[in-house]
Design a protein that fits this description.
With about 575 residues, this protein is of the alpha+beta class. Among the domains are: about 10-110, SH3 type barrels (Roll), CATH 2.30.30; about 235-350, no CATH class; about 350-495. It is about 60% helix and about 10% strand. The chain has helices spanning about 55-65, 70-85, 100-110, 110-125, 130-140, 145-150, 155-160, 160-170, 170-175, 180-195, 195-200, 205-220, 240-250, 255-260, 300-320, 340-380, 390-400, 405-410, 410-420, 430, 435-465, 470-485, 495, 505-565; strands at about 10-15, 25-30, 35-40, 45-50, 55, 235, 270-275, 285-290, 335. The strands form two sheets. The chain has a five-stranded antiparallel β-sheet, with helices on one face. Helix 2 runs antiparallel to helix 3 (about 100-110), helix 13 packs antiparallel against helix 15 (about 300-320) and helix 16 (about 340-380) runs antiparallel to helix 17. The longest helix has about 60 residues, at about 505-565. Residues about 95-160, about 170-225 and about 560-565 have low confidence and may be disordered.
């Protein structure tokens, strides 16, 4: 952690977020003692406390890990390339060490970066599509069609022209591609040619590999593009998009609160898609969250941004479904090489629901374990007798347990128990222990006090409280508990126990909507099952009636035959 004045915008750091490894990030804004960062590799943004930020170069050996996660490896490569360009990570200790920095980073950056630089040169030489081609493909969507499909949205969004709608989804970089980019590319080539030959000359081996790459690219380019791995994509449901719109409406009801509130951290996958069904019956995938969002000063701004993105995607999806937008005319907005069946889409959405339920269940299990350990420790250290060694086992489990701050606010008695154990000496005067047993107990009691102190400081850090003394700490904790009770006063006791996030957070709002949608889905499946059972029962009854009728006819026929014989 940097001491003194803190970090500056542009500093390259490791940012620690609960549940994730220390992640490479860049400081993009300062909010008092908190810093808004943008994470490399994912493009997500978050607000981080100063004590959870560490300069990259100084702590690289400490935090850099060999993870198999692709986005983490990309993050490491991105931050090291950024540091090489700037010559420093922003730390005053590294301002005059740019040569050493470049040398150290060259050792850790994969050789693929050289290939990427050669690919960059080739991409400059390739001719890009003209702006006229892009404009013609965009204008195929008429303004009238967009306004007719957006009646359910706000007037500001429904009045968008087709070009504005596409440009919102496509992003500024894609819209401006064309003749302007050709002139920029030519300028870049001219600038590069004026540089020192030693800096841009490739080795013979790299030149050979580049030629081989060109040949391979040419051959593969003539063939049909390969199908993409479906498992790497996350389907964003219509319900989630509508929930983002509903959340923005909720935020606008209390603008003062949310304009003062720092933006909450959002989970943001790299390959999110929205599925639209074409008139042919085939499903097409619209790219969602293609570009990293801008930096936001408040939760209010972020909520409005999410709402606009959701509305734009919904409008585009409707145009695709009515046949007013052809994905082949603008492939940058679509995953054209990804085809999904209806069963796969439903399975993916249900799997996401299952994962969310699993996460909540794991949270509640950890919370239950924390409460049970609290009870067991108290039972081990009673006034009549004590089992200090067993209590130490339970304290170790608390120390290793992944505790969430919300658990401590829901169960403040756990914090109080740990506070008391910091002064634990037992009831030795009443126990009449032998000298050897007394010495053993006193040793265990001292260890209990030490472990309790470790746990106590762990809780302080989790809760983000300033610990001047015990009284000040517990006054702050008591205030948090009172605020929590005020926010949950309208909830049932079972609903409070089931909470896994702060009750007034964005995630809590989305969770409530998700729960409602899940109940609708369950009820729909139950209704469908009941209808099926009713239909089967009705068919069975009709079959029984037909069988009975046939039996009567046979019996009547037999009776007539018998009568004739007797006659």
């Amino acid at each position: 952690m940097k001491k003194g004045k803190g970090f500056n915008v542009g500093d390259k750091v490791f940012a620690k977020v609960k549940g994730y490894p220390a992640w490479p990030a860049r400081v993009v804004a300062v909010h008092g003692k908190r810093y808004q960062v943008q994470f490399y590799g994912t493009g997500e943004t978050g607000t981080i406390k100063i004590e959870d930020l560490f300069y990259y170069l100084k702590h690289k050996d400490q935090f850099s890990k060999s993870l198999r996660r692709k986005d983490y490896n990309e993050a490491i490569e991105e931050i090291e390339n950024a540091i090489k360009e700037d010559g420093t990570d922003g730390s005053s200790e590294n301002q005059n060490e740019s040569i050493d920095i470049n040398e150290s980073l060259n050792q850790s950056v994969p050789n693929s970066s050289l290939n990427e630089s050669s690919d960059l040169k080739k991409s400059i030489k390739r001719k890009r599509p003209s702006s006229d081609d892009n404009q013609s493909s965009v204008k195929k969507i008429s303004k009238k069609q967009i306004s007719s499909n957006d009646n359910h949205l706000e007037e500001s969004n429904s009045s968008l022209t087709s070009e504005e709608l596409i440009s919102q989804v496509r992003g500024p970089d894609d819209v401006n591609s064309g003749s302007d980019d050709d002139s920029k590319a030519a300028k870049n080539v001219t600038d590069k040619s004026s540089q020192n030959n030693d800096q841009i000359e490739l080795s013979k081996e790299n030149q050979k590999s580049e030629k081989n790459h060109d040949k391979t690219e040419k051959v593969t380019g003539e063939k049909t593009s390969p199908k993409k791995d479906k498992s790497k994509y996350k389907i964003v449901s219509d319900e989630h998009l509508k929930a983002l719109i509903a959340y923005a409406e909720h935020v606008r009801k209390d603008p003062e609160k949310y304009k003062e509130k720092p933006p909450e951290v959002r989970s943001r996958a790299r390959n999110e898609i929205v599925v639209a069904k074409q008139q042919s019956g085939q499903y097409i995938c619209i790219k969602y969250n293609r570009d990293a969002p801008p930096v936001f000063k408040s939760e209010y701004e972020h909520a409005e941004y999410d709402e606009n993105e959701a509305k734009t995607i919904i409008s585009l999806k409707e145009l695709v479904e009515v046949g007013s937008c052809n994905p082949e005319d603008d492939p940058k907005l679509f995953e054209t090489n990804l085809t999904l069946a209806e069963e796969e889409i439903q399975e993916s959405i249900e799997l996401q629901i299952l994962e969310r339920k699993t996460q909540k269940l794991n949270f509640l299990k950890r919370e239950q374990e924390l409460v049970e350990l609290d009870t067991k420790i108290k039972a081990c250290l009673g006034l009549d007798e004590a089992e200090p060694k067993q209590a130490l086992v339970f304290l170790d489990k608390i120390l290793a347990l992944d505790v969430d701050p919300l658990m401590l606010i829901k169960h403040p008695h756990v914090v109080d128990m740990v506070k008391r154990l910091r002064k634990y000496v037992g009831n030795t005067k009443e126990w009449n222990l032998s000298e050897s047993n007394l010495i053993s107990f006193q040793t265990d009691a001292r260890t209990i006090r030490e472990k309790a102190t470790k746990i106590f400081f762990k809780f302080i850090k989790l809760l983000g409280l300033v610990q001047t003394d015990d009284k000040a700490f517990f006054d702050e904790l008591a205030q948090k508990v009172e605020d929590f009770k005020a926010k949950t006063g309208h909830l049932k006791e079972s609903e409070v126990f089931a909470l896994c996030v702060q009750p007034d957070s964005r995630q809590a709002f989305l969770d409530r909507l998700d729960d409602e949608e899940e109940m609708k889905l369950i009820n729909s499946k139950l209704d469908s099952k009941q209808e099926k059972l009713f239909s089967e029962k009705k068919n069975a009854d009709q079959s029984d009636e037909q069988t009975l009728s046939n039996s009567k006819d046979v019996a009547s026929s037999n009776l007539d035959s018998t009568s004739l014989i007797n006659f």
